[in-house]
Backbone:
């Protein structure tokens, strides 16, 4: 059982720090959503090139500074526009540059509504509580704490991890709602034409899943340990009551040894823990009798 508890503890710690790594990677990247934005082609600058520059519009005049000449633009309809790729995270949004080389990034708070700070606060709580839960799980494995203190640490770790999962779920759903709002009523110089969720968003939800897995594993360990302690306490109290009854009836000490020998599972104190959440079967009742005592003073021991 100690080996099984040790494996459960290692699994809980591993899931916790995997969730923390996923969450940090998702928050620090800007690929929660990505798509394209339809913008007019800018005017080409610099000397004419042999090949046509498809991302900009060039006049048909060789003297661009002469305002008296009529300028003709051959691009018509959809040819006057270009699709620029963009990607957005929690803290900044990036878009392809005008010459399609490099990226121009801007602060996301200048694009999204002001309620985005609620999402940032929820993400910060998610990371903080997840880290605290991991530290408590590591402290629980130390040998400098008593059994009761380890139980308290396990309970606090499960609570912190579960609360962090709830904060993470709230933050992710809030970001989705805010992004939909920005797509509908956001600024014209940012509003996308097509978009979809990207790998950072999937990584954030994977972090939430592993976080809840760590919380469930920790809570399961805590609950199982409490049940085992209660069963051992009940068994010890039962043994003490039977021995006290034997002493009151004046039975010799050998009767107690016979009881421990005859009843499987009672020879060791405390007895074996629960098996699959149920009390193990230990046999059938035994009756100890003294020939010179009346039947009402017979002692029955049930296993």
Residues:
């Amino acid at each position: 059982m100690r080996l099984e508890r040790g494996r459960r503890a290692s699994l809980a710690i591993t899931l916790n720090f995997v969730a923390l790594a996923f969450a940090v990677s998702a928050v620090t990247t800007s690929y929660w959503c990505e798509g394209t934005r339809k913008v007019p082609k800018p005017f080409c600058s610099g000397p004419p090139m042999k090949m046509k520059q498809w991302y900009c519009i060039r006049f048909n005049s060789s003297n661009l500074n002469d305002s008296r000449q009529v300028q003709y633009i051959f691009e018509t309809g959809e040819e006057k526009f270009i699709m620029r790729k963009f990607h957005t995270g929690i803290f900044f949004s990036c878009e392809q540059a005008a010459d399609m080389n490099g990226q121009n990034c801007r602060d996301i708070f200048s694009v999204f509504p002001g309620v985005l700070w609620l999402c940032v606060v929820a993400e910060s709580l998610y990371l903080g509580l997840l880290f605290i839960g991991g530290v408590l799980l590591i402290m629980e494995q130390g040998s400098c704490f008593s059994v009761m203190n380890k139980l308290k640490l396990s309970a606090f770790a499960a609570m912190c991890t579960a609360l962090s999962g709830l904060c993470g779920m709230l933050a992710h759903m809030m970001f989705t709602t805010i992004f939909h709002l920005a797509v509908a009523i956001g600024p014209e110089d940012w509003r996308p034409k097509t978009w979809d969720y990207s790998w950072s968003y999937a990584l954030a939800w994977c972090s939430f899943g592993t976080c809840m897995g760590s919380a469930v594993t920790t809570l399961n360990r805590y609950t199982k340990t409490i049940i085992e302690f209660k069963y051992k306490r009940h068994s010890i109290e039962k043994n003490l009551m039977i021995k006290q009854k034997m002493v009151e009836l004046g039975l010799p000490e050998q009767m107690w040894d016979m009881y421990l020998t005859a009843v499987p599972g009672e020879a060791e104190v405390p007895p074996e823990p629960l098996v699959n959440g149920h009390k193990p079967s230990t046999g059938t009742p035994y009756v100890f009798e003294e020939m010179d005592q009346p039947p009402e003073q017979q002692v029955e021991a049930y296993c």
About this structure: The mean pLDDT is 75.
